[in-house]
From TrEMBL:
InterPro entries: Anti-sigma-K/W_factor (IPR051474), RskA_C (IPR018764). This is Anti-sigma-K factor RskA. It holds the Pfam family RskA_C. The chain crosses the membrane at residues 103-121. It comes from Methylobacterium aerolatum.
Amino acid sequence: MSDSGRPGVEPTFEDDMRAAEYALGTLDAQERAALEDEASRDPGTADRIRAWERRLAPLMGIVPPAAPPSRVRGALLRALPAAAGSGPGELYRLRRQVRRWRVAAAGSGLLAAGLALFVAIGPARSPAGGRYLAVVQGGGALPALIVRVDTQTGLAQVRPVGADAPAGRSLELWYVGAGGAKPLGLVGADSSQVKLPRDTAADGVIAVSVEPPGGSPSGQPTGPVVYSGKLIAE
């Protein structure tokens, strides 16, 4: 349970972003279950989740329906006999997995639609709290990263989702603003915290380039930019 569940403790930026990721469907099964348990005991957590669900609900109307590829249905049908022969527990696990796939598909559709919507609207208005969310995407089924920015603390939380580095190469994260590209660090397999440049602003972009092992030798992107996302004001 987060500190915000204790009386008299204000919710943190991390608390709010966990609620946002829950509504987007990007939390894994364990994180999602833990947040649901917290919400059942903490009205503040439940309120934050509902607020994000209301905020994202209008995006559902601009996500076109899409049927899954035929190979997905075939794979599920092939798996069902084996699961059924293993007993009700295994069949239940498979059904839960299918539900998670549906959530992930809906979440990635919302993320892509939301990114397109905010790009069309233009630069975000700077909020009083200086907090932003960047959905960093490159055209795949899932976003590459979710980056949570807090200009008050000068830090950003980087959560890998679908980022994939080519063999023998590194992915490097950049903030691109009026002063050009500033390196933020390498993209790893786990969530990390990075320091923001001083000129981080509402109209900036978070980008990821492919670099030699260990990162760019010049302090500027040397390889192709494979993922990018605008900062969205919270």
